[in-house]
Amino acid sequence: MSITTIVATLEKLEKMHKSLLELAVAKTDYIKQGDMEKLDQIIKNEQAHIAAIDTLEQQRQSMVTDYLRAKGIAFTDIPTVADVIDAAKSTGSAEALIDVRGRLIEVLDKLKNQNDLNQKMVFNSLQMINITLDAMRPRQQEQFNYSGADVRGQSNINKKSFTEFRA
After folding, report:
1. Whole-prediction pTM value?
2. Whole-number Å distance between alpha carbons of 120 and 126
3. Pick from 76, 93, 23, 79: nearest CA to 53
């Protein structure tokens, strides 16, 4: 496995995450507008992106593992691109990896911030809906109907038969 193929995979991951960021920005607009049909379409599109990103991520992990094994470098946990950068510094081919890794981290930070904003907007909308529903519902008043025990004839009131009243 070469550094070039790992860089190419990271560039694909960067491209997919940029596309996901564009969807997150569009989602913000649709949340503001309350357009549920377009939100539903965006969510379906996001799921397709996430599936593709998951596949690319598995390829990246496999490539990084193969690269480190080929170099005879032992790793204890899940190998990362940082491990490959450390290993490639001695060969001088780490510049491209450092560059694409930095760009990918930047896109991921922007995506995280956008998703946090969307989450807060949806949460605030749900709070507003709950406040409105609470204002529309009548308050539960004291129970003035018969309770379950009264209906089933198990009440604590002493029952007297007709003959007891005559005496």
Report:
1. 0.75
2. 10
3. 23
Cβ atoms of 122 and 37 closer than 8 Å = no
In order of 57, 100, 133, the CA distances from 12 in angstroms are: 10, 10, 46
Structure-token pair, residue 56: 């690319």
Specify the DSSP element, H or E, that contains 89. Answer: none
In which residue are the tokens 């599109």 written? 45
Give residue 101's pLDDT.
95
Record the tokens describing residue 28, joined without a space: 């913000």
Residue given tokens 């560059």 in the structure block: 99
Secondary structure class of 93 (helix, strand, coil): coil
> What pLDDT digit, counting tens, does each position of 68-82 carry?
999 888 877 888 898
DSSP designation for 106 = H
